[in-house]
Write a structure and sequence with these properties.
about 160 residues; alpha/beta; Nucleoside Triphosphate Pyrophosphohydrolase; 9-stranded mixed β-sheet; 3 helices; globular
């Protein structure tokens, strides 16, 4: 059974997709998208018609972060989530599938951000990321990210990274 997170809201738009917890095993840090207001985001997005979820997630990651040198991609888990999308200013419900992406390097290519995507790539520790989300989680919009992050940390330990 898929876990469900967040608070159900009126007028939720359905937008299924994928997300990536990106890890640099050399520096022991994670890639996050830092919004202009300081909130950390994980790289995520919706899928194109008939697009494989892993391929779509990696496409979004490359477009939004510029990262492209991946060593390994591991399926983590999935969840049904209710949240407020602060970039698009809309209530959403989504079936989200999350992957752990291990980078070979932090090399980047130019990003391809959409107008609403006002964030930049930053590398942070697990503690800094979780503190950031707890500080901004009054409406439970980050509950699913915290769950995904917990799953990623377990997978990193399992892989010996």
């Amino acid at each position: 059974m898929i876990k469900e997170f967040g608070i159900k809201r009126e007028n939720e738009e359905r937008r299924d997709g994928g997300c990536a917890i990106v890890y640099d095993p050399h520096e022991k840090k994670f890639a996050v998208a830092r919004q202009h207001d300081g909130v950390f985001r994980i790289y995520s997005g919706g899928l194109e018609a008939n697009e494989d979820v892993q391929e779509g997630t990696l496409r979004e990651l490359k477009e939004e972060s510029g990262l492209y040198d991946f060593a390994r991609v591991e399926y983590l888990t999935e969840a049904l989530t209710h949240y407020y999308n602060s970039l698009r200013k809309v209530n959403r419900v989504a079936h989200a599938i999350c992957f752990l992406v291990i980078v070979n390097s932090r090399k980047t290519q130019p990003v391809q951000l959409e107008a609403h995507e006002t964030f930049t790539l930053e590398w942070a520790t697990a503690e800094d990321i979780l503190d950031n989300w707890r500080k901004h989680n009054q409406n439970h919009d980050f509950d699913h990210w915290m769950y995904f992050f917990e799953c990623a940390q377990c997978k990193i330990k399992e892989l010996g990274l």
